[in-house]
Structure formats: C-alpha cells, structure tokens
Amino acid sequence: MKILLTGANGYIGMRLLPQLLEMDHKVVCAVRDGTRLSVDKETLTQIDVIEIDFLEEVKEDVIPKDIDAAYFLIHSMSSSTHDFDDMEAKTARNFNDYVKHTRIQQVIYLSGIVNDENLSKHLRSRKNVEEILYKGKFKLTVLRAGIIVGSGSSSFEIIRDLCEKLPFMITPKWVLTKTQPIAIRDVIAFLTGVLGNEETYDDSFDIAGPDVLTYKEMLHKYAEARGFKNWIWTVPVMTPKLSSYWLYFVTSTSYKLALNLVDSMKIEVIAKDTRLQKILEMQPHTYKEAIDMAFKKIEQNLVISSWKDSMVSGRFNNTLEKHIQVPKYGILKDVKQLKIENPDEILERIWSIGGETGWYYGNWLWKIRGFLDKLFGGVGLRRGRTHPDRIYAGDALDFWRVLLADKKAKRLLLFAEMKLPGEAWLEFKIDENNILHQTATFRPRGLTGRLYWYSIVPFHYFVFSGMIKNLANK
C-alpha cells in the first residue's frame, strides 16, 4: 500500500514510520519542513517527503493521487493555550480537502478517550476533529487513547522528572483522577493492525492498557519499578494555573503543554470499549511492563523519538531554512580556533555535546543559565537530548535547536531557543587544515540586546575558551 503519514516527524510518526517500512509499504511523509525529518540517510532513500502546512491554504497536486491510506497524527495542543482547538479544526478540514482528489480508501486518526461527560478543551477538540474527519471522502478509523507510556513520550518524561527529582511531593488534587495508560508499543500495534482492516472502517475504538490507575498510583508504581520509594501528599488549594507552573518548573515540559495537560488531568480517561483487542487478538501490556520496556530502550540508547524534539517543545516556530544562514552584519561574535591532531575523535565529542555529557566547561554556569531561562519562561536545560551521540537537524539540544548536523562536512550549527533580547547561533566546524572553529554569533535586538551581550562577555571568555580547549583535549 502507498501510505500518507502526516505528523511524520512527531513522536508517534517517528515510531510508526519504521514499522510501516518493515511491512513493505510505500510511505509518503508529510512535514512542514522537509529539512528536519530526523531519520538516517538509508531511511530517506526508502520514503518520499512532501512539505505541507495544513494550517495554510490548500494547494493542488501536492499529495500523490495514488495514496491508498493515511494516518492523521496532527495536533496543536503544545503550540497554544487559547486557540489550539480552532487550529486543529482547520487542519482537519484542510486535510479533507487535500485528499478528496486522491484514491484514498482509509484514514486512521489517533485521538483521545472521550467517555467523560465533562470533557476538557483538549479532548473536546479531539472529538471535534473526529467529527470533521468523518465528513471526508474516505473510510475513517479512530483510535482513542489515554496517557501513552514510552521512552520519550511527554507523559512518561513528566512522570520520570517528578519521581526522579522529588521523593517528597505536595501535589494538587487532580493526582487522584483515574486514567488508563497504554504502552507506546501497543499504540503502534493498534495503528498498524487496523490498516486495511475493513472491520474497523467508519468506527471509533478505545485503546488502553489493562490498569486503571490514579495519577498518584502511577507515580508510586513508577518509583516501585525503579527501586525506590516516594511520598505524595495532596492539597486542595493548587489552582490549574499554579499546577501548570509546578509542572513547568519541575519537569521538562513547556508551559503551554503543562497548562493543557493540567486541564485534561481533571477528567477521567478510562476506556469503555475493548472491541479492537478482540478484533486484532491483542493483549496490551501493563503499566509496569510499559515502564520496563521504556527503560530498556533508554539504557540501550535506542530511543527512536522524543516529544522534546517537536518544534512546539520550544520557542522555534519557523522552518530551519530561515535561520540556517548565520547573519554577517549587525552582529556580535565570539570566535575561537584551535589546531587539532585527531579530527575524528573531536567530531565525536562535538556530536555528543549537551544532555548528560554537558558542555565541556563550566557546566554549573550552563545550569544557572538554564535555571534563569526557565524562570523567565524559556525552555531551560531539562529537555536534554534524545540520543547520546546522534544528532539530526531539528532536534532539541538543551536550550538549543539543531539547524545543521553534517558529519561529512564536519559542521554542527545550533540556534538558541532560550529567552534572549535577540537571536543567537553556536557553530562548531573542523576545516581541511584540521583547525577547530567555535563561533558564537548574536544578533542583538536594540540597546537591550547589546547591553545583554556585553554584560556576559566575562563569562563567555572563560566558558567558550574552556569549552574549545576541552573539546580539543588541550
């Protein structure tokens, strides 16, 4: 089959893509920015990539006419706290218009469980998108999931941050809300299982694991699975806004996502429909099994995708191409160069920068800068990095976004997503003469930007000098 995969560089899309290729399907990946699909060169040779922004005016002849099926994996919950429902509705309507001239037979939509009478704005939006897609000229299969547990998922990473960092927690009362988590492996199995299955056409199904737990129980069971104990007290005084700030400062989530998650965490998300398990003869994994599987991937450095690499995890709203040309005028620079003797070894160090490895000098200063960034509404350092030694364009790297990662050209270019009175780039390059170039570029925004740059010049002197020396092992 020829399959259109929307949201291909999202958390679910990146997990689903290799499974579809393994099943010998032809896959057309629809992304907003074709330069930031985080897959290796071998995978790129097996797929077609088309650039579509489903929020913009529909263009003709962008999607191949011979598409047989499509996955609708687009949502806007992390990008807005106010109008994301309007954005999601527009995306669904535009999708219907895009595919109505193709031969498409089936669309598979991953939605949320909507069995509670009083739905959150997020879940109401998912249900509305469902209704819009049902109006399309195709057979629709809707899979409704609750919390997805897997290495790199936003829910798992929030639980992980809370438990690993706070053995004692004073929590809002929504932690007593019941939910029914599902392992990412089971989500992918359901998504692939319904493909081309006529028994699932024009129908909606709940998908969930076997455990119905409160969020408090999920936190306790995570600690138990990891071999330690935690203590949790609930208080009735935490407002949704205060709860959102609490999640934002303690975990790696963005404030927009935290606010929308808290809104949904007040609603019970419990499956009432197990028909699909019987149709596909599947038995989903338990919550504990989902945690164990997630950590096996983490420990083996086999995390395929992370929600943190999504553009909406930070402040970067444009395509990479708009920033990949580092400006030459009206800028301030810090340039360092060193002659090196072992370029391949240095290149590996550059490709491992950030995350658990750190920044090779003054990590405590980077942590302070990350804390200040978080304090002023930025992304901070908690996003880390998805892979310990692999980088793709578009990946998140602490409070940077990878613009270019070209190992053959021996060049890594980063763009700052931290709160700044201007724009900042950090570049590492090894030239043909084995000289390591490290360049920090800042384009200030008015007088405030220039004052900011000159106020941190003393820190730059020590940090950037130490960083290039340690990178070069000197």
Unreliable runs? 77-81, 311-315
Question: C-alpha Rg, in Å?
Answer: 23 Å
Sheet having the most strands: 7 strands, parallel
Structural shape? globular
Give the fraction of residues assigned to helices: 25-40%
* Overall pLDDT: 84
Treating each run of at least 4 consecutive H or I residues as one helix, how many helices? 15
How many beta-strand elements? 19
The secondary-structure class comes to alpha/beta
Q: Can you list the strand order of the major beta sheet?
A: 3-2-1-4-5-6-11
Assembly state of the chains shown? single chain
Kindly report how far apart the N and C termini lie. 55 Å
Chart the SSEs and their pairings.
Blueprint lengths: L1 E5 L4 H12 L3 E6 L9 H4 L2 E5 L17 E4 L11 H16 L6 E7 L8 H13 L5 E7 L2 E2 L4 H12 L2 E5 L5 E2 L2 E2 H10 L9 E5 L5 E2 H12 L4 E5 L4 H11 L4 H11 L9 H6 L6 H13 L32 E8 L3 H9 L11 H13 L20 E2 L2 E7 L4 E6 L5 E9 L4 E10 L1 H10 L1 H15 L3
Parallel strand pairs: 1-2, 1-4, 2-3, 4-5, 5-6, 6-11, 7-10, 8-13
Antiparallel strand pairs: 9-12, 14-19, 15-16, 16-17, 17-18, 18-19
Helix pairs in contact: 1-6, 3-4, 5-7, 7-11, 8-9
Structure overview:
The protein has 474 residues and is an alpha/beta fold. 35% of the residues lie in helices and 21% in strands. It contains 15 helices and 19 strands. It has helices spanning 11-22, 41-44, 84-99, 121-133, 154-165, 184-193, 215-226, 240-250, 255-265, 275-280, 287-299, 343-351, 363-375, 446-455, 457-471; strands at residues 2-6, 26-31, 47-51, 69-72, 106-112, 139-145, 148-149, 168-172, 178-179, 182-183, 203-207, 213-214, 231-235, 332-339, 396-397, 400-406, 411-416, 422-430, 435-444. It has a 7-stranded parallel sheet, sandwiched between helices. A 6-stranded antiparallel sheet has the order 14-19-18-17-16-15. Helix 1 crosses helix 6. The protein is globular, with a radius of gyration of 23 Å. Residues 77-81 and 311-315 have low confidence and may be disordered.
